[in-house]
Amino acid sequence: MTEAMAEGYDAHSRYQLEAAGSYAGVVRHAAGDAVQDVRDPFVGIADYGCAQGQSSDPLLREAIAEIRTTRPRSPIFVCHNDQPSNDWAALLDRLEGPDSYLAVSDGPVTPLISPVSFYTPVLPRGTVHLGVSFAAAQWLSVPGPTDAGTAVYFDQLEGEHREAMRRQAQADWGTFLRLRADELAPGGRLVMDLMVVADDGTPAGHDLWRELRRICLDMADEGRIDSARLARYVLPVYERTREEVLEPFEAGSAGGLAIEALATRPIPNPYAERYRRDGDAEAYGADFAGFVRAFAGPSLRRGLDLSPDAEDEIFRRLAQAVSERADGFWFEVTTILLVVARA
């Protein structure tokens, strides 16, 4: 990923947690398939784009429990991968907890850290039997177009700028898949999900980033954000279409990976769902703004060279805007779940 997740990301990642939590059965099944014919004396697991581990740790526990049914004493390593600036201390604290995958009994489990972009090699060739990656591969390897005016999200781009970001997203997607194919052992599986554009063509971030664009433009007019920096900033996230996700597999450029399972589905907005139950618009705005700040704050801070006060004000205004529009504010993520195998 191009941006590390903010410190305290897990406290505001309920969306990601609920999505990943629904994949327990898929991960367990993939783990069992991945080790059926393993001849290595160890089993390797990799979590690509791990953040602080809240979403993936329960799934890693499921995977290890499944592997232990057929490989009760085999050494297992679990490699956590993210940017060097990730909050690694929070991840390590989680591993010491009673619900950590390290509490699974039987043979030894060794946690490892690979603090690099997953658009570079993460582990040695052929050492990963099971890979997982959740809500990560929509982040691009480089910033968005720097001469696109005041667009701050990909769906605000037009013409050649929109096409340039699409090409970058597809190049990154192909790179991600080829690198994972190289790292997977024969018969290895990769379970991943990523944001995609809904069937009606509307990105999940459309309303959100339209509102943030308005806030940033207002603050630039007030002299609180550098207008020149704003004119060069686009969040390095791209929501692919289903067709764009499948493109490398159909073109034979996915490193020999084959799709075993695929499902597209909407993930209900947990903050909006709670608002519909309790009617607390202020809490909805505050929680949603916290969610956005957790994943996008580092990129905005760096890209716009924000002072702490300016960053606080952006998200204060976002919370207020969501509260005021609570009944009509739309943000529902559509994900595509893929299980792929290395032949």
UniProtKB/TrEMBL annotation:
It holds the Pfam family Methyltransf_7. Signal peptide: none annotated. Keywords: Magnesium, Metal-binding. SUPFAM superfamilies: S-adenosyl-L-methionine-dependent methyltransferases (SSF53335). One of its GO terms (molecular function) is methyltransferase activity. The keyword Coiled coil does not apply. It comes from the Bacteria. This is SAM-dependent methyltransferase. It comes from Microbacterium thalassium.
